Amino acid sequence: MHPAMGGGEMIAASATRVVIADDAYMIREFLLAALNGSPEVNVLAVCSNGSELERAIATWEPDVVLTDLMLPDVDGVA
Predict the structure, then answer these.
(1) What is the pTM of this model?
(2) pLDDT in tens, 52-66
């Protein structure tokens, strides 16, 4: 898991807080690039497995989780 705070961009106080989780590197990077361009979205963390996702949710309490449904160590639903 790595924090994905924007590089100095202005983030709206009411921005939707998002965590991304996918085991495919290219998918994670695509979603991060697509969402980081929006001031209405604050990507809090990017995770590559279920354990990282569980920690990110507990730490950041996101509004939205974009997750692969078949992560390596847990399914993306439980």
Answers:
(1) 0.81
(2) 999 999 999 999 999
